[in-house]
């Protein structure tokens, strides 16, 4: 639903200093002035096309409302003014109540104290999440009510470790907080790589799944780390279980993906460049699954593990991630 924000209409002055000086002037008043002053003007030809919903509302719905209730246009404008004032007040109220509960970092990620969110009145819970996501990407369309409600319900439940994907990032519901992690480069997903044919699939821990469209079966086990018994290979990696969030997913690569290939001393590399260096054909790249945690990519399956999550001498528990049958990689880590 549109809510107060949608009913508020366009502001006469935007936050980015754009001003609409004729915002409160009616079309009839403007045309009367132009004719009286003898000023010529141009009209966008698209305004006459009923193809656009906004034009049908302007040319069909509004005249009908005016015919039924002559003061309807004035009443609608007054409603927008009232909603705009209420909307602005509620935004400020949320900002005050959550000021000390939200922490941002340089990557655009944020953490919201879970108890603070749950203690807010229901309308402010939804507004808080919507405002944070809008700030994460001001140019993106607001998240749907259904997604906001899903996050809110998870935060209010005993659940933890759950993940909800938004258009520009993912929200992970942890025990004490909600953590928003932007997708690589903070960009919208390219729909050529992120659609129904390239899903982001949760990986059960422990458990297994089959990568859609292939025969590759991915298995995940959580166990104590013993470097003498557990040896990684091309089709199996070990991940320090206490350094990542246990909300793993498997997906295809998207432009902007980066990781720290094992053996490069922790240096970051674009996944696209890695594919090029490995001479992996474009047609094959979309068939290579990635195992991903909220903190980053864990494994280019069958090719290279990320250096950051490799077990160390301090590791107590590890995730053993295995793929069978062997993927298409040849002679890699």
Summed up, what is this model?
With 333 residues, the chain is of the alpha+beta class. It has helices spanning 3-7, 27-37, 53-68, 72-98, 114-119, 122-136, 145-156, 271-277, 282-285; strands spanning 102-104, 110-113, 162-165, 169-173, 177-182, 201-202, 207-210, 217-224, 236-240, 249-251, 258-259, 269-270, 290-293, 296-300, 304-305, 317-324. Strand 4 and strand 5 form a beta hairpin.
Quick check: average pLDDT? 84
* Secondary-structure content class: alpha+beta
Based on Cα principal axes, name the global outline: elongated
Question: What name does the CATH topology of the largest domain carry?
Answer: Phenylalanyl-tRNA Synthetase, Chain B, domain 3
Distance between the termini: 50 Å
Order of helices and strands: HHHHEEHHHEEEEEEEEEEHHEEEE
Could you estimate the helical fraction of the residues in percent? 25-40%
Number of strands: 16
What's the story with the biggest beta sheet? 5 strands, antiparallel
Low-confidence stretches: 185-198, 326-333
Q: Strand order within the widest sheet?
A: 1-2-5-4-3
Q: Rg to the nearest angstrom? A: 26 Å
Amount of beta strand: 15-25%
The CATH superfamily of the largest domain bears the name Phenylalanyl-trna Synthetase, Chain B, domain 3
How many structural domains does the protein architecture include? 3
Number of helices: 9
Highest CATH level, the class of the largest domain: Alpha Beta
- CATH architecture type of the largest domain: 3-Layer(bba) Sandwich
